[in-house]
Amino acid sequence: MANSWMQTPAGFELVASGTKAQIVDFFACAFNPSMLARFLHTVDSLLILGSFCVMAIGAWYLLKHKHVDHGKQFIKTGLTVGIVTVALMLPLAHYQAVVVAEQQPAKLAAMEGHWEDGPVALSLFGWVDDISGETTGLSIPGAASFLGSGSFETVYPGLNTLKNSLTDFDGYNGVKASDYKGGIPPVNATFQAYHLMICLYAGLILWLFIAAATVRASKKGKVNKALLYLLIIGPIVPFLAIQSGWMVAEVGRQPWVVYNLLLTADAVSPVVSALEINITILLFIVFYTILFIAWLRVVLKMIRTGPILEDVTVVAATLDTDLLSDLTSAPTSDTPAATPPAPDPQGGE
Ligand code: HEM
């Protein structure tokens, strides 16, 4: 929500001579124009990553010949969730792109290296020269306009127009429009991150096929080791897609930290020195590295131990309580046998 507000601020007014944003409408602020699209796209991408991790763990069990039945089940379940969430990604990603087209035209133009006003081409791959303002590569004319608006003809402003539209940069303290290229983001970085994310979407589909082939092969009892290794490294694909998505979102909104409201340069506090910032970043790196190592150790231990606990729970849930208490009081090799019950003097039960 907070990140979305910084991308598409709403429900606030500027107070203290324009130096503070104060919430005047909580719901407009929380449910700002890009919040829902961003939330759905991000949650779906995390579900995809989760399903790929489950498949990777299943593949590792098959490779190690441990918990083989669970391993097969993991791959099947991961595959099912993966198919649903990867399919869902298409309408959700489309919705996100539509919101960007409506709310952040400079970001849309940077995503496709779109310099002149007109319908936006959908690049399959390419390279952008930020200095000369040229994009070279292979593209489908008007296709990005189609995705954003449903028509190949829809005209969107180009970067050359956008960078001339924000002349009031000169009104900022010590900021010149030319220093900020009039308010457009680094174009090639945004372009490449966006296209990498889309390429990786194709990678997700490829990995789903690999998982399906593994399920098929495991039914016949003959799984190729190469398929298992590919599934084990599979989570890298959605992980990289997520990182490139964040690059699109954050590099693409530059030079603003709050879109069209607060420049990143102005967001730097004058009372915190560069040294203090560097030390803080260093401490963050150290702290999060320790946390990451601790987390990794716990997770790897859980994976190595396997789904034993789940087995006990499932068995316990299917037994009736009397039988369960009989079982738990039954002698084991570690506990002495209980004294047999005395015969009923009435001869009844
Ligand atoms: C069909 C392919 C895809 C399209 C068209 C697409 C579209 C977009 C767009 C337009 C943005 C920028 C949003 C913004 O700045 O407001 C974005 C961001 C993002 N994308 Fe994608 N995406 C696709 C695939 C993926 C995949 C496969 C993943 C991960 C599994 C992913 C994860 C993300 C994440 C985490 C963000 C940043 C979150 C945000 O701020 O919105 N995307 N995507």
How does this structure look, described?
With 349 residues, the protein is mainly alpha-helical. The protein has three domains: 1-33, no CATH class; 35-268, no CATH class; 270-317. The protein is 60% helix and 8% strand. It has helices spanning 2-7, 26-30, 35-64, 68-103, 105-112, 143-149, 159-165, 187-219, 225-233, 236-251, 274-305, 308-318, 321-329, and strands at 12-15, 20-23, 122-129, 134-140, 256-258, 262-263. The chain has a two-stranded antiparallel ribbon. Strands 3-4 form a two-stranded antiparallel ribbon. The protein has a two-stranded antiparallel sheet with strand order 5-6. The longest helix is centred in the N-terminal third of the chain and has 36 residues, at 68-103. The chain is globular and about 70 Å long. 30% of the residues are buried. Bound molecules: protoporphyrin IX containing FE. Protoporphyrin IX containing FE (HEM) binds at residues 7, 34, 38, 41-42, 45, 48, 89-90, 93, 96-97, 100, 107, 197-198, 200-201, 204, 238, 241-242, 245-246, 248-249, 252.
Number of helices: 13
**Straight-line N-to-C gap:** 66 Å
- Unreliable stretches, pLDDT < 50, 5 or more residues? 330-349
Rg over CA atoms, rounded to whole Å, is 28 Å
